Amino acid sequence: MRAVRMHDYGGIDVLRVEDAPVPEPAAGEVRVRVVGAAVNPVDWKIRRGYLRQDIPHRFPLVPGWDVSGVVDAVGEQATRFKVGDAVYSRPDIARDGTYAEFVVIRETELAAKPRTISHIEAASLPLAGITAYQALVDIAQVQPGQRVLVHAAAGGVGSLAVQIAKARGAQVIGTASGANRALVESLGVDQFVDYRREALAPAVREVDVVFDTLGGDVQEASWALLKPGGVLVSVVNPPPQKRAQAHGVRGEFLFIGPNATVLAELARMVEAGRLRPVIGAEFALRDIARAHELSESGRARGKIVLYVGTP
Amino acid sequence: MRAVRMHDYGGIDVLRVEDAPVPEPAAGEVRVRVVGAAVNPVDWKIRRGYLRQDIPHRFPLVPGWDVSGVVDAVGEQATRFKVGDAVYSRPDIARDGTYAEFVVIRETELAAKPRTISHIEAASLPLAGITAYQALVDIAQVQPGQRVLVHAAAGGVGSLAVQIAKARGAQVIGTASGANRALVESLGVDQFVDYRREALAPAVREVDVVFDTLGGDVQEASWALLKPGGVLVSVVNPPPQKRAQAHGVRGEFLFIGPNATVLAELARMVEAGRLRPVIGAEFALRDIARAHELSESGRARGKIVLYVGTP
């Protein structure tokens, strides 16, 4: 099969489009014929070797851990799906991924693809959607009427976080560059902050929840915006607990895993018109290097998707 | 290039996947590398020869008149787009169409693709979207507060018509089978009618506008639902003027052409989160026969899309 593989950590030149063996599903696993895949920041963090201490990857490695496609073969004891089913997944990041014509995934990590969107849009949802959902629903437990600050609200995760927080009944403040104001407003934010022109304080204050996809200075500036008892959830770097304590708030870090239950909930939200993916850029699999460059630039709006196969 | 061509009118067997010459853009034209295309009922009506009196097609013919893709070459005096631009179109139905790797289109028939959705979703919009928009906005001139009845509200055209009427501030009644209730309600209808279980009258009455994508008995049963001075717009068969006159209403027929102005407005609505395509089925270009079978069955929900190339 055609696949993008890495034989070492490094720059974009380690991403090689080459022939690779078609993987076989073991017990409890299914093989998915990939239609769409997506690029996430974790992909190039792994490519650069940033996570080599945490995740025991072996080379050659097929990166990419977002997929929408069609069940192609079913291993023994795998009973939840049959050949031909349309499915989507964020599979185990320790295994070979989805920049390939076929990927083998544990059936427990798969959910039925949302029926009203294409495989391409569906591929953009799993990793970013699970992240936004778990941060806001499971960790922050956003309640109706609460004030939620979403940083990078035009980004792949932020654009979903805004919609999930709105669906929970929250008041949402979104930050982005002014060029993305119309997009972010279309997602339903109650207040838009152009981070290049406005300081966070005093434009934003007294929030219950901060959703942090940026870390660093932005995270640091966010503590003072929280109400006592509020919570900052970061998906980029673990918040220093001393800072949280000094402000009388909670600081949580989220590094998500596969979660078919959340995927099923996200599919329901999409089909009910309450969640729409935002596609920022589309590439063929062979253009994976350009796709990684765009992701690393931090300038993508919405999600970066890859066209791998046909339905 | 790979293309689906017909060498005669007939059944699905006349759709042949074969090699065809790459077309060259003449003055005022551009060549588009096709990423996504869509199947519309007019495609199989043309395939069967139903429109042979009206449209002077020559064989071999590349059918399909919905496309989203990337500008690949620009003819002389074509200045609106440049190579690499993402565009979408419903091109002139009298010329070779979009079931192909490349299609040549007059630049006046192209618009910039909506930025927040994939080429696959964008390909589903032009023909159906122009149809729904022109019927409701240009012909019926739907006003805020008016009551609009949309037949087949889960279909490719109806699902967009519901959203466009809602965006105009109308009260919308949508009909569909009960299996599509959740989908149709998610599009924003104020009233849902399961046409298999409920008679149109008395469930629906006193409407200002009927949008008819079904014709026949459904059109006939719709006259009595209109207020005096109301309008029925059909996109399938010309309403008998005697019937309209007898009810003191207007009966209009719409057969749309290319319209880049409407495409630009549809793109704005998509980017503003006011219009979302509904994808019902996805096929590879080589599976075009199955795609036509599904379209002819009348059982598709939303739009049928084709994966042709990569971005």
Automatic annotation (TrEMBL), chains A, B:
Q: Which UniProt keywords apply?
A: Oxidoreductase
Q: Which InterPro entries does UniProt cross-reference here?
A: ADH-like_N (IPR013154), ER (IPR020843), GroES-like_sf (IPR011032), NAD(P)-bd_dom_sf (IPR036291), Quin_OxRdtase/zeta-crystal_CS (IPR002364), YIM1/Zinc_Alcohol_DH_Fams (IPR050700)
Mitochondrion as a keyword of this entry, yes or no, is no
Establish whether keyword Secreted is in the entry: no
Where's the Enoyl reductase (ER) domain?
Answer: 10-306
Ranges that cross the membrane: none
Listed GO MF terms: oxidoreductase activity; zinc ion binding
Q: Provide an example Pfam family for this protein.
A: ADH_N
Domain of life per record: Bacteria
Protein name per its UniProtKB record = NADP-dependent oxidoreductase
